[in-house]
Write a structure and sequence with these properties.
This protein is an alpha+beta fold. It contains 15 helices and 13 strands. Helix 4 runs parallel beside helix 6 and helix 8 packs antiparallel against helix 9. InterPro entries: 6-hairpin_glycosidase_sf, 6hp_glycosidase-like_sf, Glyco_hydro_100.
């Protein structure tokens, strides 16, 4: 069943008078800085409520066995060491473009699985190799990128004649659209924190090279400039939504990852290794960013009514409509989509523009990072439950909802065939069918 069929599934599939199927509610919000969920008698590998991958019910499950088999087939070797997993396995041998490379963002869930399975070495190797790639000089045509930019992906180039293997990184110079990744550096810091928490090994994060790598990433995103917002400016195609989808500006995904990476770096940076100034900048940025996101990106039924009644062209500090959002820009679908109970972070907020679309990754990461309040976290889960048929249906959760269609799709995506309605990023599910 494809996404369109899932979305349009009718109630005729259910017995008359039967209650609408709902997912089980198992919600537990844990502060990212708290270890209270970890019994002192256990290791720091997981919370007490988290199943271990080594438990019998996992080992004997056919789906889990198949998943691990596929994951291990995707492992990439470099000079005898595991350094990551390729983005996709293609048994049919078709043109894979760059899906045969190790993507930083794509490897993160693989790395977490290996860490949960007490196999940390591949994650450590990946962190060190990408750190080495960060240090090389980066050029796109005749322009030099910032020193701290992490690659979007890398591949192993084998020269049989010389018997030499080389890592070739892509910083955007060969990517479709020629855009450098904004999120790779954030994922790297988050994964370094995950490795440290899972293994209890502090030596990796305390290496001078790792400390310097974090500071280079933070120098790029914490530098002061012309922006009047604590959020981070991001162009189209610079994140998981890696094609033109109208997410330019301040997409929720980047802001949530930014917040999470700052919290992780705050825990990893060493004062005695030159991290003091960066810790001060983080402590200044975090409350401003959380206030901004919780105040201006949050949307629920009450806030929707407030926006509907906004006055425009307000001036001075007393303005209520601070971003001059035009009430007429509220899309019609939103009034049916927004339940009385529930809410979410909208896709984007910038002057005279509010992207009301639902983006799964940004909202889920916001919960994991405690960017949301407890009440907002519960409201996001309430929204998913209330709009289960739209956001999930018979498929994995949609990356974005709703899909851009017709003339709007042509304008926003540039007629990109990869982003036709209900496919790929445009209302589709990732991984795709």
């Amino acid at each position: 069943m494809n996404n369109t069929q899932s979305r349009n599934r009718s109630s005729e599939d259910e017995p008359a008078g039967a209650p609408r199927a709902r997912p089980a509610r198992l919600i537990r919000i844990i502060d990212a800085e708290s270890d209270e969920c970890v019994p002192r008698s256990l290791s720091l590998r997981s919370c007490s409520a988290t199943p271990h991958l080594g438990q019998p019910q996992f080992d004997k499950n056919p789906m889990v066995i198949e998943a691990w088999d596929t994951l291990r087939k995707s492992i990439v070797m470099f000079r005898g060491n595991m350094v990551g997993t390729i983005a996709a396995l293609d048994d049919q041998g078709s043109d894979t473009l760059n899906y045969d490379q190790v993507f930083v963002r794509d490897f993160v869930p693989s790395a977490l699985a290996f860490l949960m399975n007490d196999e940390p070495q591949i994650t450590k190797n990946f962190l060190l190799r990408t750190l080495h790639l960060q240090s090389i000089e980066k050029h796109v045509d005749r322009f030099t990128l910032g020193h701290g930019v992490m690659p979007a992906s890398f591949k192993v180039l084998n020269n049989p004649a010389r018997g030499v293997e080389t890592l070739i990184a892509d910083f955007g110079e060969t990517a479709i659209g020629r855009v450098a990744p904004v999120d790779s550096g954030f994922w790297w810091i988050i994964l370094l924190r995950a490795y440290t928490k899972a293994t209890g090994d502090l030596s990796l994060s305390q290496m001078p090279e790792c400390q310097n790598g974090m500071k280079l990433i933070l120098s790029l995103c914490l530098s002061e400039g012309f922006d009047t917002f604590p959020t981070l400016l991001c162009a189209d195609g610079c994140c998981m939504i890696d094609r033109r989808m109208g997410v330019y500006g301040y997409p929720i995904e980047i802001q949530a990852l930014f917040f999470m990476a700052l919290r992780c770096a705050q825990q990893l940076l060493r004062v005695d290794m030159g991290g003091k100034e960066f810790i001060k900048m983080i402590e200044k940025r975090l409350p401003a960013l959380s206030f901004h996101m919780r105040s201006y990106f949050w949307l629920d039924f009450e806030q929707l009514n407030n926006i509907y009644r906004f006055k425009t062209e307000e001036y001075s500090h007393t303005a209520v409509n601070k971003f001059n959002v035009i009430p007429e820009s509220i899309p019609d679908w939103l009034f049916d989509f927004m339940p009385m109970k529930g809410g979410y972070f909208v896709g984007n907020v910038s002057p005279s523009r509010m992207d009301f679309r639902w983006f799964a990754l940004g909202n889920c990461v916001a919960i994991l990072a405690s960017l949301v309040t407890h009440e907002q976290a519960v409201a996001i889960m309430d929204l998913i439950e209330e709009r289960w048929e739209d956001l999930v249906g018979e498929m994995p959760m949609k990356a974005c909802y709703p899909a851009l269609e017709n003339h709007e799709w042509e304008i926003v995506t540039g007629c990109d065939p990869k982003n036709t309605r209900w496919s790929y990023h445009n209302g589709g599910s990732w991984p795709g069918e």
